[in-house]
């Protein structure tokens, strides 16, 4: 085997190990996962990761593509939505399309005009099943129940797009790519400002130094308050023996 091929495989292996540690961090605690109501499947995540590695070997932004593909598939996302602009890379789109096939879900890409749509389909060779043309408000109005969403921080409308998304009742994972510059500022990404009227809460957020930065948020299921469940003590008295038993419930 040529030396270059060996080096490339070793680099991929190291990337996989790094991403596995990211997955562990992204899963969160048991209580946090319960608030989301989504179920994590490491087997599906691994399958999507491997397939994306093969498809995106020669693409830019491949590290991001593999990670978001595994995340979307691992959380069993049924509706995956992304935004794309003319001139952008398509590796992430390929990864999300792979994830949708693994989960049997939908992968929808929102573009601004027909020219962008044509450019996008040519670059991805028609891989995504659905491409929606138009303003994010109009496009997202017809996409209720978003489980997984990817937006680009370099777009001026990324914050508006996140606010307009109609998230799944089971919770959702939101991803901002190219976030490294914004993360370095005091402003950062204010995830709580994107949540609707207090019916949802931010379960957790994390910044990963993958590609040009990924800022990721987990949003709770609809109606989740995030308040801890208080236990209570119940006293039971045996009428015959008079013995008291205290049970914590």
Q: Can you tag this structure with a few keywords?
A:
single chain; 249 residues; alpha/beta; Rossmann fold; seven-stranded mixed sheet; two-stranded antiparallel sheet; 9 strands; globular; disordered N terminus; SAM-dependent_MTases_sf; DUF1442; S-adenosyl-L-methionine-dependent methyltransferase
What do these coordinates show?
The protein is an alpha/beta fold and 249 residues long. The protein has one domain: Rossmann fold (3-Layer(aba) Sandwich). 40% of the residues lie in helices and 20% in strands. It contains 9 helices and 9 strands. The strands form 2 sheets. Strands 3-2-1-4-5-7-6 form a 7-stranded mixed sheet, sandwiched between helices. Helix 3 packs antiparallel against helix 5. The longest helix has 25 residues, at 3-27. It is globular. The termini are far apart. 39% of the residues are buried. InterPro entries: DUF1442, SAM-dependent_MTases_sf. This is S-adenosyl-L-methionine-dependent methyltransferase. Pfam families: DUF1442.
Round the Cα radius of gyration to an integer and report it: 21 Å
Overall 3D shape: globular
- Can you identify the CATH class? Alpha Beta
Oligomer: single chain
The strand order across the widest sheet is 3-2-1-4-5-7-6
User: Termini separation (Å)?
Assistant: 62 Å
Structural class, from helix and strand content?
alpha/beta
Give the integer mean of the pLDDT values. 78
CATH architecture tag: 3-Layer(aba) Sandwich
Report the major sheet.
Answer: 7 strands, mixed
The total number of structural domains is 1
- Beta-strand content bin: 15-25%
> What low-confidence regions span 5 or more consecutive residues with pLDDT below 50?
1-11
Along the chain, the helix and strand elements come as: HHHHEHEHEHEHEHEEEE
Proportion in helices: 40-55%
Q: Give the beta-strand count.
A: 9
CATH topology: Rossmann fold
Q: What's the CATH H-level superfamily name?
A: Vaccinia Virus protein VP39
Number of DSSP helical runs: 9
